[in-house]
């Protein structure tokens, strides 16, 4: 296939979405394999697959998401471990995207609040394991 194309765009994201995975919130586009997940649900696996099957690296274009996926939490759901499973479907639609379970980057930035602020918006939650970084 590669010899006949100028480039191949890899859409290596949306491995998990609130519409397909209503009761499992996880990273929609992990860079590398996560513990206890399928080995092919990450960007690294997709790129390696194409390269190992003879596609020249210069022909691969990697598409990455610049948005976030959201889910509604059930009651007092725990958000300190992954994947989060105490969920109730897609989160509310954003004012710009108007799609349940999807927020654009500007919509996310407007909701993230400092950890010391009053309740209301999203809060930056540090990763105690120091393996995944902060998330909202």
TrEMBL record:
GO biological process, one term: carbohydrate metabolic process
GO terms, molecular function: chitin binding; chitinase activity
Region (Disordered): 116-136
InterPro entries associated with the record: Chitinase_insertion_sf, GH, Glyco_hydro18_cat, Glycosyl_Hydrlase_18
Entry superkingdom: Eukaryota
GH18 domain location: 1-136
Single GO cellular component term: extracellular region
Protein's UniProt name: Chitinase-like protein Idgf4
Organism: Diabrotica virgifera virgifera (western corn rootworm)
Gene name in the database record: LOC114333998
């Amino acid at each position: 296939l590669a010899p006949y194309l100028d480039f191949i765009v890899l859409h290596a994201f949306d491995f998990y979405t609130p519409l397909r995975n209503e009761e499992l919130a996880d990273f929609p586009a992990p860079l590398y394999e996560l513990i206890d997940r399928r080995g092919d649900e990450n960007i690294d696996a997709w790129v390696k697959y194409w390269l190992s099957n003879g596609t020249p690296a210069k022909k691969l274009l990697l598409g990455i998401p610049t948005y976030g996926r959201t889910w509604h939490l059930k009651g007092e759901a725990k958000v300190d471990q992954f994947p989060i499973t105490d969920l109730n479907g897609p989160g509310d639609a954003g004012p710009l995207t108007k799609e349940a379970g999807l927020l654009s980057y500007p919509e996310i930035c407007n909701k993230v609040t400092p950890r010391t602020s009053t309740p209301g918006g999203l809060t930056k939650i540090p990763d105690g394991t120091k393996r995944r970084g902060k998330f909202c």
